[in-house]
Amino acid sequence: MASNTSSEEVVIPVEPVTATDTTDASNADIPDYLKMSAMEHDQAVEHMKQDIEKEVSKQHLVGDIEPTSVLKTVYANDDSVYQAKIQEIEKNYSKIRRIRQDGNCFFRSFGFSLMEQLLANKSEIDKIKPSLTAVKTDLIGKFGYPDMTVEDFYDNFIEVLDKLKEEETDIEYLLKTYQDSGLSDYMVCFMRLIVSVQLQRNAEFYLNFISSKYPTIKSFLSEEVEPMYVESDHLHIDGLSTCLNIRIIVQYMDRGMKVQEHKFQEGSPINVTINLLYRPGHYDILYA
Amino acid sequence: MASKGLDQGALLLKKQLADLQRSSVDGFSAGLVDDNNLFVWEVLIVGPPDTLYEGGFFKAHLNFPKEFPLKPPKMKFISNIWHPNVYADGEVCISILHEPGEDKFGYEKASERWSPVHTVESVVLSVISMLSDPNPESAANIVAAKEVRDSPAEFKRHVRKCVRQSQDNL
Q: Which Enzyme Commission number(s) are on file for it (chain A) (predicted)?
């Protein structure tokens, strides 16, 4: 990039420093945020982040079922693009369950919707378990993850799945479990690891879709998949859906022309379909 | 239902502590500062062989947040230690102790970040490897970082002083 720098140019002195005494004179025109020191700036950003976190933590981790029309109140009346799209979605999905917007929403939506359907369809539970066990085995045996933590997340997930088989388990149990941040977040941790395993097993394939700022699958996983609160993208959905062979249908609602539908693992023999609504930066669960 | 709730972090720490004390890991030992509080640990790190820190015994505290393991612990050396990635107050600054998005430290994208799957062992082992392999690019102690680059002899003198001190304080 410095190909035009010849050896003569090196001796040319840098521009004379003339701006030394301008700082005080023009101070009045500088907006407040530019007068901050780096540390003050960091603190301001930190405060803002804390305010947002506080606001978000008031939302239920997993909400109750509501009519899809509730979304109309979220957008301005004259927001014709979104109002029209909500109507379009309502035709096929009359109900919605809203999930906390904390960066884990895709995983929490998937996990809850999966288990809610398994509760009504208990015979499918054992079809999913082998892939979950293989995830644990590969993480520890093949990819060298610590058994201590992996087993903790796995056990928690399986314990809830097994509970779904019991006659007396009802939706209240599932709601309570997913609204308990300790249990709910542990479930998210494990689902993040499922994506991680799927991407590591097929690293060469998935690398094709990863930004070149990540030289390896591991660096992508460490930054974008395994940590909590980082948002999900197409790859996360594909990884989870493929690894467990669970059908996912996402309705994409953004500023584009119309609602787009994306299907994952469409031909899965497992009698479960996760229906999700995507709005930029967020996922919720849809119901017919 | 067996509600684990917020105790999950405590349970995990308890298991890890028992595990570390049962089968010790080369290079460090771990215990609680106060037996009633699982969220503050003291570790004693042995200066890694064939490094400037060889022969030293460095005490550090690990402070776990109530959201552990979702959020990372903080680690702070109690013993005096001279290292580019340790602040003057002893706080350790390495990527594994930070969540993604905390980019003000200027880590490379490829560096390992905190995720719930990490254990106390993996954190302390990363710190030990930091002792063997300082990263002057994301410096917490700028003077030490400059010494590593420009005056290794001076850096060595400072480190060896800490090593002797750590032996005296043992």
A: 3.4.19.12
**CB-CB contact of A238 with A263 (8 Å):** no
Phi, psi of A139, rounded to the nearest 5 degrees: -60, -45
Interface touch B113/A153, C-beta < 8 Å: no
**Bond before B136 cis per omega within 30 degrees:** no
Which one of A52, A169, A223 makes the best mutation probe of the B interface by having the most chain B beta carbons within 10 Å?
A223
* Cβ-based contacts of A189 with chain B (< 8 Å): 69-70, 116-117
Out of B8, B15, B19, whose CB is closest to A182? B8
Task: Report if residue A26 sits inside a domain.
Answer: no
pTM of the predicted model as reported, rounded to 2 decimal places? 0.84
Distance from C-alpha of A264 to C-alpha of A179, rounded to nearest angstrom: 27
Q: Name chain A contacts of B71, Cβ cutoff 8 Å.
A: 228
CA distances from A234 to A130, A238, B19 (A): 24, 6, 38
pLDDT tens for chain B, 170 residues long, are 344 444 788 999 999 999 998 887 889 999 999 999 999 999 999 999 999 999 999 999 999 999 999 999 999 999 999 999 999 999 999 989 988 766 555 555 557 889 999 999 999 999 999 999 998 888 899 999 999 999 999 999 999 999 999 999 87
Which neighbouring-strand residues pair with A274? A248
Contact map slice: A 103-162 vs B, CB within 8 A = 145-146, 148-150, 152-153, 156
Domain tally, chain B: 1
Residue matched to tokens 């941790």 = A189
Asked if residue A34 belongs to a domain, the reply is: no
Question: Which residue range is the domain that position A132 belongs to?
Answer: 62-258+271-287
| Domain containing residue B47 | 4-168
Tokens standing for A110?
């998937």
Q: How many CB pairs under 8 A join A and B?
A: 86
Q: What is the pLDDT of residues A234-283, one digit of tens each?
A: 999 999 999 999 999 999 998 888 899 999 999 999 999 999 999 999 99
Q: How many structural domains compose chain A?
A: 1
Q: Quick check: is A11 in a domain?
A: no
**B42-49 long-range Cβ contacts below 8 angstroms, 24+ apart:** B42/B78, B43/B124, B45/B124, B45/B127, B45/B128, B45/B131, B47/B131, B47/B163, B47/B166, B48/B128, B48/B129, B48/B131, B48/B132
Instruction: Residue A281: give its domain's CATH number.
Output: 1.20.1300.20
Residue A174 lies inside a defined structural domain of this protein = yes
Subunit contact B99:A224, Cβ cutoff 8 A: no
